[in-house]
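The material for today's practical consists of a large collection of protein records. Read left to right, the C-alpha cells trace the chain's path through space. An example says more than a description, so a record of this kind follows:
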Amino acid sequence: YKPYGVPDSRRAEYEQKVAERQQREQLLRQGDTAARAKAVVPESTHDFGMLDPHTTGTHSFLICNEGEHPLALEVRETSCKCTVGELQDGLLQPGEQTTVEMTWNTGYEADQYEQTATVVTNDPLAKSIALTVKGTVRAELIAPEVIGFHESDPAETTEASFVLYSQLWEDFEVIDAQCGLDGFEWHAEPIDNSSPELFDTQAESAWRVRVFAVSESYGEYSGDLKLTIQPNDGAAPVVRSMRCSGRVRAPIGFYSPQLHSEEGLDIGTVETGQEHQFHVVVRSRGDMNRDLEVLDVKPAELNASLEALSQPGSYRLTVNVPADCPLVVFNAEHQHGYVQVGDPSDPRFSNWFPLYGAVTTVKQ
C-alpha cells in the first residue's frame, strides 16, 4: 500500500504534500464562507528603473489580513535585508495591515538587478508570498564585447563602426586606440544623445568609434582592440578591451548556377564515350592584372582550361570530360575531385572548388 515511486525516506514529505492539497481543495470548495486568515498583497513586484551604482534602495510592500482569523507572518529566504512592521504577538488581526520593508545596495554591478524575499503565512491558500524589487544599475561605460569588420578582398581596407556611451558621465573622450591588426587606424567623434541608435539607452554622453584594418592573406583574422577613455570629471582614464574579427575573401572567386558555395560543382553521372563540358566564371579579386592558370585538376582523367574574357580579371573556366575518359568515380565525401586556379608565380594567390561526379557506362 505504499505510494508508487516514493522512497521511505520521503514518505513523510509526500503525505504532507497530499494533506496540503486536500486542505486547499476543501477550502476552494468552501469559497468565501471558510473561516481562515486571508493574506492580500496589492503589489508583490516593484521596479525602480535606473539607479546609480552603490545606491541603497528601500521599498515597503503592504500586506493585509482580509480573513476572519489572525494572520501570522515570517520573512524567510531573503536575498537582501528585510524587516516586517510591528505586529502584536507576531499576528495580524482581521482587518489589520502591515508592511514588509526591503533594503539593499546595488553595489557596482552593471545591467539588471533583482532582489527577492519570501514571506511565510498561515493562510492555507497563500502559504508563501514572494516579494521582488528589480531595476537597472547605471553603467559608467557601455561598449560592445565583439566587433566585426566588413568582409573584404585581399589588401583592401575594411572598416568597423561602433558606439560607446555612459549612463553616468556627462562627457568623456576616447584618447587612444591600439590593435595588432595590419594597417590598423582609428577615428572617434562625439555624437548627440538624441541619435536614434541611443534610443532607450539612458545615455548621458556617447562617442562613435571607427576602426580600419588591411589584410593581405585571405581567411579569418582577429585581434584585441584596447581603448583608453578619459572621463570629464577628472577621474583616472578607463581602459576597455574588446575582440575584433573579420574575414578576407579568397583572391579568386568562382560563379555558376551549377556551383554550390560549399559543396562545389556536381556534374552528376555522365556516360563514357561522349564528351561533356561544364563552365564556370572565374574572377580575380583585388589585383586584376595577374595572369591566372589552371594549377591542378583531380581526377587526372579530366582536364580544365581558362579563357580570358573582355572584363579585366575575368575568365571562362571549362571543365572537360573527354570522350575517351575511362570509368572513374569521384562522388564520395572522402574521395572527390577538385579544380585549382591561381597565379603560378604566387602560391598565396589561388583558390579551388570541390568536384563531384562519376564517369560510367549507362546500361540500357
About this structure: The mean pLDDT is 87.
